[in-house]
Structure formats: C-alpha cells, structure tokens
Amino acid sequence: MRIQQWPQRERPREKLLEQGPQALSDAELLAIFLRTGVAGTNAVDLARQLLNRFGGLRALVSAKQHEFCSAKGLGQAKYVQLQAVMEMARRYLAEALQREQAFTSAEDTRAYLISRMRDEPNELFAMLLLDSQHRLITFKPMFQGTIDAASVYPRVLVKTALDLHAAAVILAHNHPSGVAEPSQADQQITRRIIDAMALVDIRVLDHFVIGDGVAVSFAERGLL
C-alpha cells in the first residue's frame, strides 16, 4: 500500500509534524530521508529492508560509499545528501561547544566526541583545544593507530597547543572494540601529557575514551 493511502496521522511526515521526530521509528525517519520508495515498495518498507540489510541505522549511516550506493533505493545522490546531513550535525554540536564553556558542558563535549570518533575504524587520538575561558578553538586529530606510549608524543601535543594559543586541552581517543574502559596504558600516557603541558602552563581538563555510544571521562573517574 502506498503511504498516501495510510491514515494521515500514521504517515511519517505528518506524524513528525504532529508529535515531533522523537516519536518516529528508525524506519520512519529513514523513509523521510529517502522521500520515495521503489517499484512495488513504499518508502517505509524500503527503509525497513535497508535497516535489515545493514543491521541498523548506525551501520547504514557509517557504511562505505560503494556499499551504500549498491543497495536498492540508494545511490550516489543519497550518499552525498546523507554525508551532508551528518556533517551538519557534527558542526551543530561543535557550535554548541563554542557557545558554551566546554568543560562545564560535559554532555555537549561527550556528544560531540562520540559523533566525531565512535565510527573510526582505527584508534584515533585527538585534542579539543580551548581558550582561557575554556571555549572551543578547534578539534584536532593528532595520532592514528594503536594508542600507547610509543605512538603518542607529548611534545607534538604541546607544540600544537602552543601554536594554536590554547590555554587548556581535553584529550580524547576511541576504542574501536566499543569498550570504553581506560587501560593502564591510557592512564600512563595521560600522566605524561599532563606533566608535559604543565611545563608550558597549559591545563589538561579531561581525557575521554570513546566507545560504542559511550564516552568515559577520566575526570569523572578521578583518574586525572
């Protein structure tokens, strides 16, 4: 049955306008993005098929271009649109941090870091560089690969912070396994970075470990 033949309050667009986007299922939200179905399949049913194929909304959103474009009802235009939407969401979160004091808005910080780092296939070590009011200057990816004492260089972090006139930093790295528990190596390199930054009077306010939809704060754990 075509969506136009559904009761009006059950149609995804009308439902969103009446109840808000939080009332919609993943398939209904995806159907609005798709706009149309394919021959013999309406947009909601197509959305359900795509979610089943990819294993969920997150997997679909993070799929590689060739895999995404090969799916029925998708293609390069939809891929470009989706990437634009995701980038707008990331920039929205970045602007939220720029308007607020980053460290006192821990939830905004956590949400932004999760959106930037949770789907990285390899470990990524990054910094949020902050001004004297703890407002965001920029997000800076620094190192990729296995994060340990041999692959993270405190002197490079210090130089970057000085070059960008940062007064404080928040460290972050992801665990591609999805488990966000800080390791002993994480704690050791954090201490080395804190000591190096202290020599040039730059504070390390926190270190977040990013997992699958969760970010563990060293400050909240009492590990700084």
UniProtKB/TrEMBL annotation:
Keyword set, alphabetical order: Hydrolase, Metal-binding, Metalloprotease, Protease, Zinc
The record ties this protein, via Pfam families, to:
RadC, UPF0758_N
Q: Which GO terms describe its molecular function?
A: metal ion binding; metallopeptidase activity
| Ranges for domain MPN | 102-224
Q: Name one GO biological process term.
A: proteolysis
Which SUPFAM superfamilies does the record associate with it?
Answer: JAB1/MPN domain, RuvA domain 2-like
In terms of Gene3D superfamilies, this protein maps to: 5' to 3' exonuclease, C-terminal subdomain, Cytidine Deaminase, domain 2
Annotated InterPro entries: MPN, RadC_JAB, RuvA_2-like, UPF0758, UPF0758_CS, UPF0758_N
Q: Which family does it belong to?
A: Belongs to the UPF0758 family.
Protein name, UniProt field: MPN domain-containing protein
Q: Which organism is it from?
A: Lacimicrobium alkaliphilum
